[in-house]
Structures are given as structure tokens and as C-alpha cells.
Amino acid sequence: xxxxxxxxxxxxxxxxxxxxxxxxxxxxxxxxxxxxxxxxxxxxxxxxxxxxxxxxxxxxxxxxxxxxxxxxxxxxxxxxxxxxxxxxxxxxxxxxxxxxxxxxxxxxxxxxxxxxxxxxxxxxxxxxxxxxxxxxxxxxxxxxxxxxxxxxxxxxxxxxxxxxxxxxxxxxxxxxxxxxxxxxxxxxxxxxxxxxxxxxxxxxxxxxxxxxxxxxxxxxxxxxxxxxxxxxxxxxxxxxxxxxxxxxxxxxxxxxxxxxxxxxxxxxxxxxxxxxxxxxxxxxxxxxxxxxxxxxxxxxxxxxxxxxxxxxxxxxxxxxxxxxxxxxxxxxxxxxxxxxxxxxxxxxxxxxxxxxxxxxxxxxxxxxxxxxxxxxxxxxxxxxxxxxxxxxxxxxxxxxxxxxxxxxxxxxxxxxxxxxxxxxxxxxxxxxxxxxxxxxxxxxxxxxxxxxxxxxxxxxxxxxxxxxxxxxxxxxxxxxxxxxx
Length: 485
Ligand code: BG6
Known about the structure:
By secondary structure, this protein is α/β, with parallel strands linked by helices. The protein folds into 2 domains: 7-144, Rossmann fold, CATH 3.40.50; 177-414 and 430-484, Dihydrodipicolinate Reductase, domain 2 (2-Layer Sandwich). 36% of the residues lie in helices and 21% in strands. The protein has 14 helices and 17 strands. It has helices spanning 17-32, 52-67, 73-81, 93-103, 122-131, 151-162, 180-190, 221-246, 255-268, 275-280, 363-366, 414-424, 433-453, 468-475; strands at 7-12, 41-46, 83-87, 110-115, 139-143, 170-172, 204-212, 281-287, 289-291, 294-296, 314-319, 331-336, 343-350, 369-375, 379-387, 395-403, 458-461. Strands 16-15-14-13-7-12-11-8-17 form a 9-stranded mixed β-sheet, sandwiched between helices. The protein is globular and about 75 Å long. The structure holds 6-O-phosphono-beta-D-glucopyranose.
């Protein structure tokens, strides 16, 4: 019995950055982990005039880079034998005939169409697939972000894809949901009775979600300048993390039970619009500075960024969820490029003790905290107060740590997990259409208010933690960002 069903994974955009850097290396790793049977295939598709061999050489180079050491030659030879390539220009009808030939006689296999292309091509690809009868009952389509740039464009994409695939066949990917710590957050919340009574207003003082990157726009200026941090990171990754953290316990781990609960959070987000946007959001843009001691240029000097661009490379937000569980608990979200550290973490700070009987350090230091780190390392730490050894009753914060990186078993990269979930037909970690819609509905008014108030983003030096206004946003509530404490 094979670990997975036989599948054909047809990867559109196979020569693009995401495919080469993440998707194909992830598939190779899953192949090595024996998740492919002997007849499953990965079929790279792009509009480049490559032959199979040429494509395989490119993939080999990228897999070698991602392994960062010796590539298992035997494993590579076996993987390459299950790798194919077809040139398809999505706008050329005849090209789908060639693809059809490749898939002939394989109607029983699970068929995954992974669209790692510009969303502008989604419609032509889906229409081509339908017209040439390539969509079998066992077919699935995976949509990579950006899924639109506002509510209207996202709805249009959803509508057009829905004309070809049913909702159960559509996998809207957000790779943050595939990260190990996010899985562990669910395990922690719904596999233990311990936290549930504490997971609410009155017990939790505030929550911080930070996704900080040291990298800049990395040759993606054209895309990034049209997008900005709010749409590139908050609309999807940060809101999804917020949903997993804040959602009610679902009735089961079935996809729709989980997604129903996430949707309720998205719908309960207090709208940020008008003056609130000025008070509760900070937009920033990096200027020249240094990352790890090396000088780096500012956003406006990056190749491809138009002069005077006001696109934000940093955003911080104070968010509230209007529900019985969360009313009054602030959630601070923050993400940016060219920040001081490459790090993603969720920090849950619990309430103070109601009455202090010890001569303890400052209350700020004394607060219990649960820190869930997604990267660079994956771990969960609970900060408690304990007595220091020796005479007297002096307390100090100590960490209870849960190190998630086991020596015996390497954690799966997010894409490894998600790709195999698609093959298995598990939609739990993928966004449903109404979730996407709700996320955009909350994001759009923020951008509109930014435009209306026409304030340029605040600058910050590359290598810092963002504009000073970001610290001010949280310190107005008598708090500080986790790294500032
Ligand atoms: C992508 C964004 O979705 O996520 C990028 O488009 C960002 O701008 C990336 O760099 C971050 O992902 P990760 O997994 O490296 O944190």
C-alpha cells in the first residue's frame, strides 16, 4: 500500500522563483521521504522553450542549493525519472493539447494543478484546462497568493476559478499555516485542557504577532511596489496566525469546522477605517542602513522602485476582536522588511497577579508570557516566576521551553506539508473562499483611509525595528514590543 495515492502534479510557473526556491525542493524532500509511489509524476509547466533535460538540470541546481550540502545522487536520479516538462503558454490553445497528451490515460490518478503564476493567468489556465477536458473528478487546483489586490479583484478570481473547479477542489495556499509552530499552536490549544480557561479576556492582557524580515525586496520591486506590506503579509499570513490563535475550539479537525471558526474571527475584527486608521496603524518605509553590519540601500533606491513611491515596507496595527472571548484584549500585529532580525513569533502576555505579596522585580518583567516562535527556530516558551536559589524570597523569570526541532526527525518545510495535504485531499490548512473575502473586506478600508489621509509612510533605518511610531503605538497602552522589553 503506497503512502500516498498515485498523482500527477502539474506545476504551472515551474521555472519561476517560488517553484525553484521552495516548491520543487519540497517535492524532492517528500520524494526522499517515500511519499511518492513509483508512477507518480511532477510535470513542470511554463512558457519557456525548455526540454525535459534542461528543466531537470535547473531543478537539480535549485534542489542542490536548498539542501545546502551533498545531494543524494541516487535519490536525485530516481526523482528526475519522475520529473517531466511541458511548455505551455497559457494564452495558446494548442499548448494545452501537448499537456493533454502528457496526461493521457492517467485519469485515475489524483491530478494537482498548482498555479504558481501571476493571478492574471489563472483564468486562461483554468479555461484551457476545462476546454481540453483535463479536469477530472480527482483534480485539484492550488492557488498561490496574491489572490487579488482588493475585495473586488479577489472575488473575480474566485468566480472565474469556480467556473471550472468546485470549492472542494480549490486549495488557496497560505504557507504560514503549514509551519510547524502553527500546527503546534493548535495542538497546544486543542490538545490540552490547561490553556483553555486562560485563553480569554481577563486572563490575557495582550497578544503580539511579529513577522520581521531582514531581507529587502529581493528583485521583486515591481510586484512589491504594487502590493506593500499590508497586502503582501497582513492580509494573509498575519491574519491567518491571528485566526488560529483566537478562534473558538472547532467541533472537529474537519476542514470546514476549522474554517468556520477562523471565518468568525475575521468577521469579528473591529473595522479600522477613517481616523482610527491614523491612531491604530503605522506605515513605514525603510531608508538606507545596515543589516548584520553590512550597509544596505533604502527602498527608494532599490532597482525598479518608482521615484517617490509611498509603498509601505512596514506596518504595525492595533487590532481588536469584538467577541465575548476577546473584547478589550488588544492584538498588536507588526511586519516589515529590512528589520533588525529575521524572526516570526506570537507572544501572549497574561494578566498580572491580582495582589503582590513578594518583593518582586518590576511587574513588567513578572508577567507570564507564552512565546511561540515560528522562525528562525521553532520553539514554544512559557515564562514563569520562580524563586532564585539562596536566602530570601527573590523571584526571577524562568523559561519552560518546548524545543520543537527534534534531532531524530527534521521538521517539514511548510510547503512539504501543504503539497502533500493537497495530494491527500486535506483542505484543513487552506483558505476557503469566504475567508479570503472577509480578510479583504477588513483590509480594504485601511488602505482607503491611508489614501484619504494622504500621509506618507514614516521612514525607518534599515536594520532597526521600524519607525519610532511603532513603539509609540504600543507604549500608549503602557506596553512594549516583546523585543523592546
Ligand atoms: C511571502 C511574501 O508570502 O512570504 C514575501 O510575499 C515574504 O514578501 C515571505 O518574504 C515570507 O515567508 P517566510 O516563510 O520566509 O517567512
